[in-house]
Design brief:
- Helices cover 81% and strands 0% of the residues.
- By secondary structure, it is an all-alpha fold.
Length: 405
């Protein structure tokens, strides 16, 4: 459908309310980073090393990536509602199991299972694309992700405070409770928006080449992947930088860690307000260049010897701003290349984006291990941001050729 239809809150015979979509996406973001300030303490608890414990982020992202390859086609075939509800229930079970994990190997395995909550984030975007046209969808995705940005902005601070008061397990109890509440909300409010396909699931998967042969899909996808890649590298390396380079405790690190989310919320607000007026390509170009500029300035500042928590985390706001401008608009572009495959496109694009993010998260940990400087992380993020700029320029040029040709 190309325009919004009647929506009644807590009436599952109508499409879901935007609040439900925000919360579904928010829980997925919360699960990714609420416990990050606890990583040093969890390393001691499980009697392992930081690089191994840091895999709790990377494996969660790998789980996200792999699951998205299937979530999209399954939702195109059977509908958004059953896939989201199933994902919520499994997430709650896996989260409680994390609390009682007897060793780090079991914990890391459960983190992969926990990643199924990505269905809420992936399909909230597909639901919006089911309801709106391209530019309007970008605007609505911007509003959803602006609300969702509250989760990663406050999560590290909350996680750090919970760790200080009750230990690392408290963050997972909070996730489990929120998971139950969101499951109930989705059951009551989430009406189906997809037109169910008559194709089999195997036939749905076979439609991937239709997307993979589209240069515009790849352009938007790689732009989103490289832009978010800088943020995922930050997720993998910032806890180490805060703890080992700047000597922060968990609570202080939690407060500083949310800096990118401030910019992310700003970028999402700008997208929601101006995407329809200026179009998704202008937003994508602006976002990539703002992110890259901020990181290259941060690099210069660090090399000049002015590295401290305020300069390091302060410049990360530009990363969040760039993500807030790029991701809703690039996602809308991906989903609009083949509108009848919106769920598949959301899943495939998300898998590529998060799979790359997982690799960068691990690479950040490797580059920082044993070092007493934030420089390796900043260099990695700056290079990734530069690649996002190149991808954005290519995509916009390709789109203009398609439009004028």
């Amino acid at each position: 459908m190309t325009k919004a239809i009647s929506v009644r809150f807590l009436d599952r015979t109508t499409p879901p309310h935007i609040l439900t979509l925000i919360l579904l996406a928010g829980v997925s973001a919360l699960a990714m980073n609420i416990f990050l300030p606890s990583l040093p303490g969890m390393t001691a608890y499980f009697e392992t090393d930081y690089a191994t414990m840091q895999l709790s982020v990377a494996l969660y992202l790998v789980g996200n990536a792999v699951l998205q390859l299937f979530i999209g086609p399954v939702s195109d075939r059977y509908g958004r509602r059953p896939v989201i509800l199933f994902g919520c229930v499994v997430f709650v079970i896996a989260t409680v199991a994390c609390i009682y994990a007897p060793n780090v190997e079991v914990f890391l395995t459960l983190r992969v299972v926990q990643a199924i909550i990505i269905s809420g984030m992936v399909l909230s975007r597909a639901v919006i694309r089911d309801m709106f046209s391209q530019d309007r969808a970008a605007s609505m995705i911007g509003y959803v992700t602006m609300g969702m940005a509250v989760a990663p902005m406050i999560a590290p601070a909350v996680g750090g405070a919970l760790d200080g008061l009750f230990g690392w397990k408290a963050s997972f109890w909070v996730l489990a409770i929120l998971g139950v509440l969101v499951t109930i909300l989705a059951w009551k409010d989430l009406g189906e928006t997809a037109v169910k396909s008559s194709s089999s699931l195997l036939e749905q998967v076979r439609q991937y080449p239709e997307l993979l042969t589209s240069r515009r899909f790849w352009g938007y996808c790689l732009t989103a992947a490289f832009t978010s890649g800088a943020f995922f590298a930050y997720l993998g390396g910032a806890p180490y930088v805060g703890t080992n380079v700047f000597g922060m405790d968990a609570a202080t690190l939690g407060l500083f860690f949310g800096a990118p989310a401030i910019g992310y919320m700003m970028g999402n607000f700008i997208t929601g307000r101006f995407a329809v007026q200026f179009g998704i390509n202008a937003m994508v170009l602006t976002g990539t260049f703002l992110s890259a500029t901020g990181l290259f300035v941060a690099l210069i500042v660090n090399v000049a010897g002015f590295s401290n928590p305020y300069t390091f985390f302060g410049f990360m706001i530009s990363v969040g701003l760039g993500n807030g401008l790029v991701l809703p608009n690039a996602t809308s572009g991906m989903l609009s290349v083949r509108p009848h495959l919106a769920g598949t496109a959301s899943g495939l694009g998300g898998a590529i984006m998060i799979g790359g993010g997982a690799a960068l998260s691990v690479l950040a940990g490797i580059l920082l291990e044993g070092r007493n400087s934030a420089l390796p992380l900043i260099v990695l993020m700056a290079v990734t941001a530069a690649l996002s700029c190149a991808s954005a320029v290519y995509t916009v040029r390709r789109d203009r050729v398609m439009t004028t040709g």
